Amino acid sequence: MAWAYVQDVEDGSLEDYDRVSAELQKRSGDTPPQGLILHAVGGHGNGMRIIDVWESEDAYQRFREEQLVPAMEAAMPGAMAQGPPRMEPLELHNLIRP
Length: 98
Prior knowledge:
The chain is an alpha+beta fold and about 100 residues long. It is built from 2 helices and 4 strands, in the order E-H-E-E-H-E.
């Protein structure tokens, strides 16, 4: 079954998100990461909330290590110095796709 997470980035802005997204796109074009099922982000409180669904936690970890962290470091130097924001993992019981 798929694996998901919800992450609230209280001090992050949608502009920060857009910078990282642009860096990811420079590196991999419009091709979605292997194993990604769904990615959603929106404003939440004073920051943003990210919701992802992946084929597996391993697929997410590969994407994070190989693509996301390098893109974040390039787009926002020092952003990872304190580590990533806390994320709430979710082992999915059911996932309905069209």
